[in-house]
C-alpha cells in the first residue's frame, strides 16, 4: 500500500526535522512526503525539502490546517494519505501498525493512532460525536470539574484503550483512505483551525465508511509549538469553529433561539478562557492575592 504523508507547517522550527526523522522508522515501506507550508519564514520547510522524497508546497498564505492539507493531498495517486502535525514523534512501526489495521477494517475510511503527550500521558484522541447535552456539560464543567460525566463520556476516558470504531479522531495524525477523502471533498476549509477533524470524520461516517481508533499504533505529540505564540487568536479560532459546527447542525428559523444561546455562551466562554489563562500565567491576581482578598 502506498502512502503520501502531508505535513502541515506554520513556523515549525526544529520540530519538523525531528518529525521527518521519526517518520523514516514508522514504516518499512517508502513514503512520499509533502510539506504544505502556510507561510513560514524560519527556514525549516526549505531545509526539509532538501531531504530525498520530500516536496515543499507553499500554500501562498496561512490557509489554516484543513486548507493546507487539501492542497497537499491534491493530485495524489497513493492509496492512503497520512495527514500530520509537524510536532509529532512517530514511534518505530507506528505507521505500519495503522496500515495493518486496514486489513482488519476493510471499510475504514480513516484511522488514528494512540497519541501520547511528552510526559507519557494518553491524550483522548478518540471521541464520541458531540451531542448538545454532552457539549454543554463539557463546556460548563470541563475546567472546574475535569472528571464530570459529560466530559468523561465525550472523551471516552473510561476503560482501557481498545481498537474499534469511534465518532471522531484527532486531526494531529490521521491515516485517510484517499478514495474516501476525495469522495467527501476533503477538509471543510470554512474551519480555519479546530473542529475540521471532527467535521471530516463525521462526514466520512455518514458516507458509510468506518472511523477507526488503533491504539497499537503510538505517536507522541509535543503540541502547542506554534499555537502557544498566538494563544488568544487560537482560543478565538476554537470558539468560532465550535459555533460553526454546532450552528450547522441546528439550521432554520425554529432553531434561531438555540443558535443565539450558543453564540452568547461560546462568546462568554472565550472571554472566560482568556481570564483563566491570564490567571494561570500570573498576569491577573486571584482573589486571595488581591488587596483585601
Task: Please describe the topology of this protein.
Elements: E1 3-9, H1 14-24, E2 32-37, H2 44-49, E3 54-58, H3 64-73, E4 80-84, E5 88-90, H4 94-104, E6 108-116, E7 122-123, E8 126-127, H5 132-141, H6 149-155, E9 164-165, E10 168-169, E11 173-177, H7 178-183, H8 196-206, E12 210-221, H9 231-247, H10 256-280
Parallel strand pairs: 1-2, 1-4, 2-3, 6-12
Antiparallel strand pairs: 4-11, 5-12, 6-7, 6-11, 8-10, 9-12
Describe this entry's structure for a reader.
- Helix 9 runs antiparallel to helix 10 (256-280).
- The protein has helices at 14-24, 44-49, 64-73, 94-104, 132-141, 149-155, 178-183, 196-206, 231-247, 256-280; strands spanning 3-9, 32-37, 54-58, 80-84, 88-90, 108-116, 122-123, 126-127, 164-165, 168-169, 173-177, 210-221.
- The chain has 10 helices and 12 strands.
- Helix content is 39%, strand content 20%.
- The chain is globular and about 55 Å long.
- Strands 1, 2, 3, 4, 5, 6, 7, 9, 11 and 12 form a 10-stranded mixed sheet that branches.
- It is an alpha/beta fold.
- The chain has 2 domains: 3-223, Spore Coat Polysaccharide Biosynthesis Protein SpsA, Chain A; 228-280.
- Mean pLDDT is 83; it is low at 283-293.
Q: Specify the biggest β-sheet.
A: 10 strands, mixed
- The overall number of domains is 2
Catalogue the unreliable spans.
Answer: 283-293
Please count the helical segments.
10
Helix content: 25-40%
| CATH top level assignment of the largest domain | Alpha Beta
Rg, nearest Å: 20 Å
Q: What do we call the CATH homologous superfamily of the largest domain?
A: Spore Coat Polysaccharide Biosynthesis Protein SpsA, Chain A
| Mean pLDDT rating | 83
Give the class from helix and strand content and strand pairing.
alpha/beta
Our measurement of the CA-to-CA distance between the termini, rounded to an integer number of angstroms, reads 64 Å
Helix and strand run: EHEHEHEEHEEEHHEEEHHEHH
**Looking at CATH, which topology of the largest domain would you report?**
Spore Coat Polysaccharide Biosynthesis Protein SpsA, Chain A
Percent of residues in beta strands: 15-25%
CATH architecture of the largest domain: Alpha-Beta Complex
Number of strands: 12
Overall, the morphology is globular
Amino acid at each position: 500500500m502506498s502512502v503520501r504523508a502531508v505535513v502541515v507547517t506554520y513556523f515549525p522550527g526544529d520540530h519538523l526535522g525531528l518529525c521527518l526523522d521519526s517518520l523514516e522508522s514508522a514504516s518499512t515501506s517508502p513514503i512520499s512526503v509533502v510539506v504544505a507550508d502556510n507561510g513560514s519564514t524560519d527556514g525549516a520547510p526549505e531545509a526539509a525539502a532538501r531531504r530525498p522524497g520530500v516536496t515543499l508546497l507553499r500554500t501562498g498564505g496561512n490557509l489554516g490546517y484543513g486548507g493546507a492539507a487539501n492542497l497537499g493531498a491534491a493530485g495524489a495517486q497513493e492509496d492512503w494519505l497520512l495527514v500530520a502535525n509537524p510536532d509529532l514523534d512517530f514511534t518505530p512501526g507506528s505507521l505500519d501498525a495503522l496500515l495493518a489495521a486496514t486489513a482488519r477494517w476493510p471499510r475504514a475510511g480513516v484511522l488514528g493512532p494512540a497519541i501520547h503527550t511528552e510526559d507519557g500521558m494518553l491524550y483522548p484522541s478518540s471521541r464520541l460525536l458531540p451531542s448538545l447535552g454532552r457539549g454543554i456539560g463539557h463546556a460548563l464543567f470541563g475546567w472546574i470539574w475535569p472528571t464530570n460525566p459529560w466530559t468523561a463520556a465525550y472523551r471516552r476516558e473510561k476503560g482501557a484503550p481498545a481498537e474499534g470504531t469511534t465518532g471522531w479522531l484527532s486531526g494531529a495524525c490521521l491515516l485517510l483512505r484517499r478514495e474516501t477523502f476525495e469522495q467527501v471533498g476533503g477538509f471543510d476549509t470554512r474551519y480555519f483551525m479546530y473542529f475540521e477533524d471532527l467535521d471530516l470524520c463525521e462526514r466520512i461516517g455518514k458516507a458509510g465508511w468506518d472511523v477507526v481508533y488503533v491504539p497499537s499504533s503510538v505517536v507522541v505529540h509535543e503540541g502547542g509549538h506554534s499555537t502557544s505564540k498566538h494563544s488568544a487568536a487560537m482560543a478565538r479560532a476554537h470558539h468560532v469553529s465550535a459555533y460553526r459546527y454546532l450552528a450547522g447542525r441546528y439550521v432554520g428559523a425554529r432553531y434561531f433561539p438555540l443558535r443565539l444561546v450558543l453564540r452568547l455562551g461560546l462568546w462568554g466562554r472565550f472571554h472566560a478562557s482568556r481570564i483563566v489563562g491570564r490567571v494561570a500565567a500570573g498576569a491577573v491576581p486571584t482573589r486571595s492575592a488581591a488587596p483585601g482578598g
